[in-house]
From TrEMBL:
UniProt cross-references to SUPFAM superfamilies, sorted A to Z: Mitochondrial carrier
Highest taxon listed in the record's lineage: Eukaryota
Mapped Solcar repeat ranges: 15-102, 118-206, 222-321
Localization annotation: Mitochondrion inner membrane
Name of the molecule in the record: Mitochondrial carrier protein
One Gene Ontology term, aspect cellular component: mitochondrial inner membrane
Organism, scientific name: Glycine max (Soybean)
UniProt key word Membrane: yes
Family: Belongs to the mitochondrial carrier (TC 2.A.29) family.
Keyword field contains Transferase: no
PROSITE patterns associated with the record: SOLCAR (PS50920)
Key words, A-Z: Membrane, Mitochondrion, Mitochondrion inner membrane, Repeat, Transmembrane, Transmembrane helix, Transport
Lineage: Eukaryota, Viridiplantae, Streptophyta, Embryophyta, Tracheophyta
GO process annotations (BP): transmembrane transport
Amino acid sequence: MASDDGVKPPTHELLSICKSLVAGGVAGGVSRTAVAPLERLKILLQVQNRQDIKYNGTIQGLKYIWKTEGFRGMFKGNGTNCARIVPNSAVKFFSYEQASLGILWLYQRQPGNEEAQLTPILRLGAGACAGIIAMSATYPMDMVRGRLTVQTEASPRQYRGIFHALSTVFREEGPRALYKGWLPSVIGVIPYVGLNFSVYESLKDWLIRSKPFGMKAQDSELSVTTRLACGAAAGTVGQTVAYPLDVIRRRMQMVGWKDAASVVAGEGKSKLEYTGMVDAFRKTVQHEGFGALYKGLVPNSVKVVPSIAIAFVTYEMVKDILGVEMRISD
């Protein structure tokens, strides 16, 4: 209950924060589980060596995983993925809301902008901030998730789970190894998450304001189908721009894993060795061509379009169910 001066008590604010975090976490878990097989195939395509091709496209890749590893193989690494994406998504959505408020407040302090509202550029900045915060907070989980996803029954090294992988990497490779590939991840998350939020929110605003495609004048809320379409468009734009950095990040995460050669490059091939992000880019393009930066793009596109759409819509629906007053558009 609000106090007489209109200021909400701390308990109300804390409850609202918790509800927002829960909504973001549920959105992340639901959206990633729905596309888990495609997520695993994307990573396998990203890191496989061209001299030892096992996965050759989306359909063939999924069939190969099913044939060699069965149903469990389709969802291998999803538990780790959800353990990472649930807090990541919770922090990301909440950070976006807070960053949007902060950036808009600063923008309105400028002369002549007192009545300004969020623009696509301001949303891009808020999304970038949210992405950096969420990525940095959960990066070690993403690092070990990549390794758990890549390993197969034939891999010499068998990580038994999230905490075994974290402790093994920490013990054998040092604490810095848990943040291998962090720089390209952060650089990539700026356009990726920034564009996701900016395109999604701007599209929704435009549809509500312009009323195209036969929308009625009194419509102030978009249907679930329309919001899914907005989320799909946002995901497509964001992942296309940021995808090469995701490939480099994934490859850098394999560096230092002494069994990576047998998993990624095939038996008898040289191990992955990169001195940094620029070196990883150079060697990837030099040895495999520019197209290698987009390995796994097709299954990733098939995955990202529904995943981002489901995440946005699930987030808003859960917040409605929980009775959270603030929406990401507000």
